[in-house]
C-alpha cells in the first residue's frame, strides 16, 4: 500500500471513529499512524503525525464524555 493510500485510510477511519467514539480501538489507530508515517519522507512525518495525534486526542476527549454519560 502506498503512503497516500495509508493516509487516506487513516483519515477515513478517524472520521468514522467520530461517529462511534466509544467503540474506537485507540491502540490500533496509533499503530496505523505509525505505519503511515513510516512511509512518508522525513519532511512530512512530523506534520502528519502531529495532525493524526491531534485528531486522536480529540477523539479520546469525545470518547471520555460519551462514556461518562
Which tags fit this structure?
mainly alpha, elongated, 80% helix, 69 residues
Structure write-up:
This protein is mainly alpha-helical and 69 residues long. It has one domain (3-68). It is built from three helices and no strands. The longest helix has 27 residues, at 42-68. The protein starts with a helix and ends with a helix.
Mean pLDDT: 92
Count structural domains.
1
Low-confidence stretches: none
Radius of gyration: 12 Å
How much helix, percentage-wise, in residues? over 70%
Order of H and E elements:
HHH
Short synopsis of the structure:
With 69 residues, this protein is an all-alpha fold. The chain is built from three helices and no strands.
Write the layout of secondary structure elements.
Elements: H1 3-17, H2 26-38, H3 42-68
Amino acid at each position: 500500500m502506498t503512503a497516500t493510500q495509508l493516509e487516506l485510510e487513516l483519515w477515513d477511519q478517524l472520521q468514522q471513529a467520530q461517529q462511534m467514539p466509544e467503540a474506537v480501538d485507540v491502540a490500533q489507530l496509533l499503530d496505523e499512524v505509525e505505519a503511515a508515517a513510516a512511509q512518508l519522507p522525513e519532511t512530512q512525518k512530523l506534520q502528519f503525525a502531529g495532525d493524526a495525534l491531534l485528531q486522536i486526542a480529540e477523539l479520546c476527549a469525545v470518547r471520555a464524555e460519551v462514556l461518562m454519560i
